[in-house]
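Sanity check

After download, print the first record. It should look like this:
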Amino acid sequence: MKIVAQHGDIPRPLRWLAAVGLLPVPGPFDEALLLLVAAILFVFYRPQLRDAWQQSSREVVGEVPAP
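Expected structure tokens:
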């Protein structure tokens, strides 16, 4: 979610919601917020979400991201 929150093609209010969801808030508030953001991303921003997943897999493997 961190990579998605920093992605430039996703609207700023949605990125802010994702950032708030990443905060260590006690209780189910942050999990519910992340589920809401994930559902919106899945429905409306699927190509950007796929790009973020591919970018995260390149970072895990250790590949250098393309310029």
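If your output differs, re-run the checksum step. Summary of this record's structure: The CA atoms of residues 5 and 36 lie 14 Å apart.
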